[in-house]
Write a structure and sequence with these properties.
Elements: E1 4-8, H1 21-34, E2 38-41, H2 53-67, E3 73-76, H3 82-95, E4 99-103, H4 112-125, E5 130-134, H5 136-139, H6 145-151, E6 157-162, H7 167-176, E7 182-185, H8 188-196, E8 201-204, H9 211-222, H10 226-242, H11 250-258, H12 275-288
Parallel strand pairs: 1-2, 1-8, 2-3, 3-4, 4-5, 5-6, 6-7, 7-8
Helix pairs in contact: 1-2, 2-3, 3-4, 4-6, 6-7, 8-9, 8-10, 9-10, 10-12
Length: 291
Amino acid sequence: MITGSIVATVTPMHEDGSVDLESLAELVEHHIASGTDAIVSVGTTGESATLSHDEHHTVIEKTIQYASGRIPVIAGTGSNSTAEALELTKVASELGADACLLVVPYYNKPTQEGLYQHFRLIAESVPVPQILYNVPGRTSVDLHNSTAIRLSQIDNIIGIKDATADIERGRLLIEKSPDDFVSYSGQDTHAMDLMLAGGKGTISVTANAAPNLMHQMCTAAVAGNEDKARELNDRLLPLHEAMFIESNPIPAKWALSEQGLIKNSLRLPLVPLTEEAQFHVRTAMIYTGVL
């Protein structure tokens, strides 16, 4: 079981927009040294929407290579096209990903039965462990608890990244799903509460800028050490909020560039963090102690 602070890594880029593999290697080393428990490669934070398939595969392959088995690597392989998600998942499995993260299909608004059949087909076609990703704020489609529980009966669907920010709903899913079906938070501001309710970790944007503090907080929360978890989360809260002051991963990339870890380069339609937002992110980083 993968538990704890799972960083949704950015994809470093050069000024011309090409993927910066040297900085990617340094980021992986930084996370391992900082205690990060696992890496999600090429999720939303990794700008998956603007990477070509070749780039997508390369970033996953290199992340696995750089990690060298020291921490698990989860590959983002979701799509609103079932055929495309299936192909991405097959390739990630062949490259050696420890698991795959598949977002609820976006834009085409499938029914609950359509969602079930989408995820079932991919899981039955590729034996790699798979994590569902429900983020209705981005996809405009909500994977209902009842559908997630149906999917949890499939052996290699091992968990869900819950980005609904509805803690009561998250608690109910944890209570009603099998013990080996794991809930991960997908909202940093609510991650501690979900872990204290029985979640096993968080797939985190904040962990880009504060990997060691996130690791410590998640370790405490998963262990049920509420006082320690709250003490650490109070330090992290301004950064949780600052990481979403503009669209993810704009603030995360700016924060990492301020720490000297990457260049502050994104692909259109994303643009660099505004000066006003920079003030808020810098203030949060200083408060948290990561700048």
